[in-house]
Amino acid sequence: MKTISDLGDLRGKRVLVRSDLNVPLDGSTITDDGRIRASAPTIKALADAGARVLVCAHLGRPKGAPEARYSLAPVAKRLGEVLGTDVVFADDTVGDDAKAKAAALEDGQVLLLENLRFNAGETAKTDEERAGFAGELASLADVFVSDGFGVVHRKQASVYDIARLLPHATGQLVSTEVDVLRRLTKDPERPYAVVLGGAKVSDKLGVIGNLLGTADRLLIGGGMVFTFLAAQGHEVGKSLLEADQIDTVKGYIERAEKEGVEIVLPVDVVAADAFSADADHEVVAADAIPADRMGLDIGPESSRLFAEKLADCRTVFWNGPMGAFEMQPYAAGTKAVAQALVDVTSKGALTVVGGGDSAAAVRQLGFADDDFGHISTGGGASLEYLEGKALPGLTVLEEGDA
What we know:
Radius of gyration: 22 Å
Shape: elongated
Mean pLDDT: 95
Largest sheet: 6 strands, parallel
Strand content: 15-25%
Helix content: 25-40%
Order of helices and strands: EEEHEHEHEHEEHEHEHHEEEEHEHEHEHH
Number of helices: 13
Strand order of the largest sheet: 5-6-4-1-7-8
C-alpha cells in the first residue's frame, strides 16, 4: 500500500482524507477526544505539505439524513484546537456549501465536511448507490488518503468506493495500525497473551478460534466469561449467558488443551443482586455464583492471577473490559489488567489496547495513551483482522491507483 510520501508534491492539491472522528458526545460536549488526536498527525502533515485538506468522517448512526445531534460541528472546533489552526466547517457533505468551501480553500487550509452518514449513499447496500455518492465526493478532490482505521472493515462509499476513483494512499494512522496488527499475527514475540472481555462471547468466537493457533495464553473476563464457566458445568446465577454458545465454547476449551494454549478464567467474581452501582454486591468463587446474583467484574484473586499471567509476556493484545467499569464497584478488574499492561510495557513488551470500550476504560480510569504500546482506534477492525478476515478498506488500497 502506498503512503503519503509516495504521492509526490501535494502543494496546491485538494486531498480528501477519510478520518475516524466518531467520538462520544454528551450533548455537544466531546467526552473522549482520542480519535481526534489520533487523526490529527496525518491532517497536519498534509496541511504542512501545502495541500488543501478536506476531511470527511461520520458520527453516530444517522439514517441517511441530517440529524442535528450527529453534527460534526463540535468536532471541527476540537480538531482546530488540536491542530492549532482554524478548521473550516461545511454544513453539508457534497452540497453547495461543501463545494463552495472546497473551491475556496487555500494551500495548507483544512475543511471538515458534515457527517458522511447524512447521505444514504455512504452506507448503501448496492454498489451503484455507493459509487454515485463516492463520485460526488471525488469531484471535490484530486487525491484520496485513507486514515479512518475504525471503518476499514466496512465496504462504504468513503472507505472503499472512492479509492477506485482517485489516486490514493494510507495515512499515518492506518499505516501504524496495520503495522501493529502484523506484529500481532506474524511471528509475535513470546510469550504472547490475548486478553478478551466485553459482553458477548459470540462477538469474539472467530477471534478466539483463530488465536488458538497463534497465542500462548487467552485470558477471559467480562460478561463473556460466564459462557465459559457454564461450559465447565458451573452455576452462573443471573449473569450474562449465551446458552446457545456453550457447546462451541466447550469445543474451544478442548482444542486449546490439545494445542497447548492456556485458557485463564477468573477464580472469583464480584457478584451483585442487580445491575447497579448501588446494588448489594460481594466477592464469590467463580464456580459458586449464587443463583440470585450476577457477576459484574472479576474478583481480586482473579486480578492478581491475570497480572501474574501477563508479567512475563512480550506481546499482549487486549480487547474488552473485565467488568462493568463504568460503575465504580465493578472497575477494579479492568484497572488491574490495565496496570499489568503498563508494567510489561515498561519492560519493553508490545502491548496493544484494542479500541472501543477498552480504550475508553483506560482513559476513564486515569491511564495515559502513552502508558501502552498502542491504543487502537478501531476495535471492530482489529478483531476482524485478528480473525483472519479481509478488510475491504485495506484490500482496495492494495489494488493499485485509480
